[in-house]
């Protein structure tokens, strides 16, 4: 249990908290007001931006926390939370608004742990990915809300079944030694996704996110990739198959970080289901196609898990404070997990950053790439690893490094350009080369043509 003492120790720093949080359900306009209120209270460490609009034109707002808002600082990892992907699963939306208020208030109070987190991490919080669906669910309210009312977007599409299906491509290409990372999108992908999905894909393509969680409801468990089983031919029998990623042990550790910091998730028995340690492989629970967490892992550098946070998808307001107290430490502890493994710069001999360099870890068949400035972040468990950096036009470099249980190991790569070698000139065997022989002999064109064969 020693490995779970860190979240417990961190919790002690949050016991003396008396921030005035809003334990209310927020309709769209109220949610926007809450976000801008936080931004006005902490203007120097926050920024609000929109990644696009929903089907009905509502902004998909993100609140950013950073000591330099709007700027990517080299070697500072990017983290994101996404809530309310299913419009009727509302607890995540409210928790992320409460988290935003909490981070601002604790930063203003000088909380050392929160100040360090904002100083060393660029945190992006999207309370609602499906604001249209939420409005449908909210009209009925928590008392009469149907299990599926408001789940989909305004076009009736489940956004967590709407991302390009990279799993099928990965499973097929795996049979012929193909990649399971940075898989290209199909040519017509934009015509197959909803506006909200399109906005998120463009968002995660623009930021080099390292770690993420999307917040759902209807169960209490931390779910990790893969969500889609490779063996889909038996789905008519609802067959479930554990389908691990190459980073399975790391994903289990990330999921346990949340479940053991949560008030009761780690106990396993919740909502009539049992999950050991409060975690599950997604496909082992049920197979899901075109989901967001698998897409993050297969298309970007980001490691994402799905957090199912409440049996009741639309809990009453009187339950929100209890839910916040159960999730507060877990939400903070999970952000801190972005600071593990290795990170560093990939540069050329003139110290210019190399974007798109491939970082490979021996024994783990899943690569990540460096960002626009040449910095990279590779989440890893404690241990000793052999890591290779490679980029087109450069010689690869390999190093061995040891990762500890606390801060990430700093591993820089400086790659040398490939030397273009000219083919050696042919010399007649047994012929001595002297200055006279090196002199070019001028041969008339007609003579040269006669000597060709």
How would you describe this structure to a colleague?
It contains 13 helices and 18 strands. By secondary structure, it is α/β, with parallel strands linked by helices. The strands form four sheets. The chain has an eight-stranded mixed β-sheet, sandwiched between helices. Strands 11, 14, 17 and 18 form a four-stranded mixed β-sheet that branches. A four-stranded antiparallel β-sheet has the order 13-12-15-16, with no helix packed on it. Strand 15 (383-390) and strand 16 form a beta hairpin. The longest helix has 19 residues, at 91-109.
* Strand line-up of the largest beta sheet: 1-2-4-3-5-10-6-9
CA distance, first residue to last residue: 82 Å
Percent of residues in beta strands?
15-25%
SSE class = alpha/beta
| DSSP helical segment count | 13
Residue-averaged pLDDT, rounded?
Answer: 88
């Amino acid at each position: 249990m020693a490995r779970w003492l860190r979240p417990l120790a961190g919790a002690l720093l949050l016991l003396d908290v008396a921030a005035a949080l809003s334990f209310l359900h927020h309709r769209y306009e109220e949610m926007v007001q809450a976000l801008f209120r936080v931004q006005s209270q902490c203007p120097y460490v926050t920024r609000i931006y929109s990644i696009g609009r929903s089907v009905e034109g509502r902004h998909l707002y993100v609140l950013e926390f950073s000591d330099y808002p709007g700027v990517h600082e080299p070697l500072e990892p990017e983290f994101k939370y996404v809530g309310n992907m299913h419009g009727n699963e509302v607890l995540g939306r409210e928790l992320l608004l409460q988290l935003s208020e909490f981070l601002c208030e604790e930063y203003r109070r000088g909380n050392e742990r929160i100040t360090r987190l904002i100083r060393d991490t660029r945190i992006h919080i999207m309370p609602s990915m499906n604001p249209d669906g939420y409005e449908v669910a909210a009209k009925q309210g928590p008392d009469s809300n149907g299990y599926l009312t408001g789940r989909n977007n305004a076009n009736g599409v489940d956004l967590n079944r709407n991302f390009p299906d990279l799993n099928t491509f990965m499973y097929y290409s795996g049979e012929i030694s193909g990649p399971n990372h940075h898989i290209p999108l199909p040519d017509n992908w934009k015509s197959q996704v909803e506006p909200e999905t399109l906005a998120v894909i463009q968002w995660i393509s623009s930021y080099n996110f390292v770690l993420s969680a999307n917040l759902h409801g209807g169960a209490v468990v931390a779910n990790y990739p893969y969500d889609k089983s490779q063996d889909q031919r038996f789905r008519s029998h609802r067959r479930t198959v554990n389908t691990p990623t190459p980073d399975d042990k790391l994903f289990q550790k990330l999921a346990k970080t949340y479940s053991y910091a949560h008030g009761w998730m780690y106990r396993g028995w919740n909502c009539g289901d049992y999950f050991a340690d409060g975690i599950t492989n997604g496909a082992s629970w049920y197979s899901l196609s075109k989901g967001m967490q698998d897409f993050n892992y297969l298309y970007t550098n980001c490691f994402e898990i799905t957090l199912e946070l409440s049996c009741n998808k639309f809990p009453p307001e009187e339950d929100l404070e209890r839910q916040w107290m159960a999730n507060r430490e877990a939400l903070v502890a999970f952000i801190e997990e972005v600071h593990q493994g290795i990170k560093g710069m990939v540069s050329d001999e003139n110290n210019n950053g190399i974007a798109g360099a491939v970082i490979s870890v021996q024994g783990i068949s899943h690569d990540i790439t460096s960002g626009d400035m040449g910095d990279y972040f590779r989440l890893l468990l404690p241990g000793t690893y052999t890591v290779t950096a490679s980029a087109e036009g450069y010689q690869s470099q390999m190093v061995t490094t040891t990762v500890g249980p606390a801060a990430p190991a700093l591993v820089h790569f400086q790659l040398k350009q490939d030397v273009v070698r000219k083919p050696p000139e042919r010399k007649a065997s047994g012929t001595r080369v002297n200055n006279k022989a090196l002199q070019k002999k001028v041969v008339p064109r007609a003579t040269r043509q006669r000597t060709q064969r």
